C-alpha cells in the first residue's frame, strides 16, 4: 500500500500535501465487521474529516496552531468488507510501514478491534510499550459468543501481548464481572468511572516510556457523544477528556501514536459526535505528536 499518494476524498483540515515532509500521518480504519450491537463505525473516519472544516486552527488548550505541525492525511486503508482477519493483517502491515518511515500514526476508527493490530506493530518497535486506554468498556473478553475477533477483545489481547501491568484503562464503567476480577487478579491498571484524576496520578510513573493512546468515543457520556455503537450512561464530559489530553501533553511520557475509534455518525443527526471527535484529533495533533520528539 502506498502512503504518499494524494488522497482524492475529504482530508482533515490543514493536512499537509507531502507525506515525506510530514511528522504524523492520519489514516482511517473503516471496519465494523465484529460489532455486537449497532454497526456504522466504518463511516466514522470519513465524517470526522468532513466536519473538521468547522474547527478553528488554533487550540487554546495546547496554545498551538495546526500549521505548526506537518501531518499528512493518507485516507482510509481499503479493508475487505466482512473479512476481519485480513483487515487486521492489512492494518498491521500498514502501521509497520509508517513506523519504518518514522511517522507518528493517528488512526480513525472503525470499531475498537482495529486498535489491536496497531498495538502489535507498535510493540514490535517499542518492546517497553505502555498503553493508555480510555473507554466505557473493559474490552477484556477472550471472545464474544465464541468469536475471538471481536470489538470486546482488543485490550485483553494487548494485555496478553505486552503484560497487563503495562496497560492503563480509564473511564471504565461496563463489562462482565469476570473481566473486572481478572484485571484485579493480574495487576492490570483499571480505573473505573473517571479519567482525569487517576490519569494525573499515573503519568509520572510512565515518564520516559513509549506510550500508545487509544480512545473509544464512548468513554464520553451519551449526552456528549450519542453517535456510537454501544452507549453507556454515566460517562465523562468532553471537557474532562480534553483536559486529560492536555495532561498527557504536559507530562514526560513519550507518546508514539494514538487512535480514536467507535464514532458511528448515523446515530447522531446533530453531528455532535463527529464534531467532538474532530476536536479530539486536533488536540492529539497539537499536543501528542510533539511528545514523540
Overview of this protein structure:
It is a single chain. With 293 residues, the protein is α/β, with parallel strands linked by helices. It has one domain (24-292): Arginase, Chain A, CATH 3.40.800.10. Helix content is 31%, strand content 18%. The protein has eight helices and ten strands. The chain has an eight-stranded parallel beta sheet, sandwiched between helices. Helix 5 links the parallel strand 7 and strand 8. The longest helix has 17 residues, at 84-100. It is globular and about 50 Å long. The model has no long low-confidence stretch (mean pLDDT 95).
In short:
With about 290 residues, this protein is an alpha/beta fold. It contains eight helices and ten strands. The chain has one domain: 3-Layer(aba) Sandwich (Arginase, Chain A), CATH 3.40.800.10.
Helix/strand layout:
Elements: E1 24-29, H1 44-51, E2 58-59, E3 64-65, E4 71-76, H2 84-100, E5 104-109, H3 115-125, E6 130-134, H4 154-162, E7 167-172, H5 177-186, E8 189-192, H6 196-202, E9 210-216, H7 238-249, E10 254-261, H8 272-288
Parallel strand pairs: 1-4, 1-5, 5-10, 6-7, 6-9, 7-8, 9-10
Antiparallel strand pairs: 2-3
Helix pairs in contact: 1-8, 2-3, 3-4, 6-7, 7-8
Amino acid at each position: 500500500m502506498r502512503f504518499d499518494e494524494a488522497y482524492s476524498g475529504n482530508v482533515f483540515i490543514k493536512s499537509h500535501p507531502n507525506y515525506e515532509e510530514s511528522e504524523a500521518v492520519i489514516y482511517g480504519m473503516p471496519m465494523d465487521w465484529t460489532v455486537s450491537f449497532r454497526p456504522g463505525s466504518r463511516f466514522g473516519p470519513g465524517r470526522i474529516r468532513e466536519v473538521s472544516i468547522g474547527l478553528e486552527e488554533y487550540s487554546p488548550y495546547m496554545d498551538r496552531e495546526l500549521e505548526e505541525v506537518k501531518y499528512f492525511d493518507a485516507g482510509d486503508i481499503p479493508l475487505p468488507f466482512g473479512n476481519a482477519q485480513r483487515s487486521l493483517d492489512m492494518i498491521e502491515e500498514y502501521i509497520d510501514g509508517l513506523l519504518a518511515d518514522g511517522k507518528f500514526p493517528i488512526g480513525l476508527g472503525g470499531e475498537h478491534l482495529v486498535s489491536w493490530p496497531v498495538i502489535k506493530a507498535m510493540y514490535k518497535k517499542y518492546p517497553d510499550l505502555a498503553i493508555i486506554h480510555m473507554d466505557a468498556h473493559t474490552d477484556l473478553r477472550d471472545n464474544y459468543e465464541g468469536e475471538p475477533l471481536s470489538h470486546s477483545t482488543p485490550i485483553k489481547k494487548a494485555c496478553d501481548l505486552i503484560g497487563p501491568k503495562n496497560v492503563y484503562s480509564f473511564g471504565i464503567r461496563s463489562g462482565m464481572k469476570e473481566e473486572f476480577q481478572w484485571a484485579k487478579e493480574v495487576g492490570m491498571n483499571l480505573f473505573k468511572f473517571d479519567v482525569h484524576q487517576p490519569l494525573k496520578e499515573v503519568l509520572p510513573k510512565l515518564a520516559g516510556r513509549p506510550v500508545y493512546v487509544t480512545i473509544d468515543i464512548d468513554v464520553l457520556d451519551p449526552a456528549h457523544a450519542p453517535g456510537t455503537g454501544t452507549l453507556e450512561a454515566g460517562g465523562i464530559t468532553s471537557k474532562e477528556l480534553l483536559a486529560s489530553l492536555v495532561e498527557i501533553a504536559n507530562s514526560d511520557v513519550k507518546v508514539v501514536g494514538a487512535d480514536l475509534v467507535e464514532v458511528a455518525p448515523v446515530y447522531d443527526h446533530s453531528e455532535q459526535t463527529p464534531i467532538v471527535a474532530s476536536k479530539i484529533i486536533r488536540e492529539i495533533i497539537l499536543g501528542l505528536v510533539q511528545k514523540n520528539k
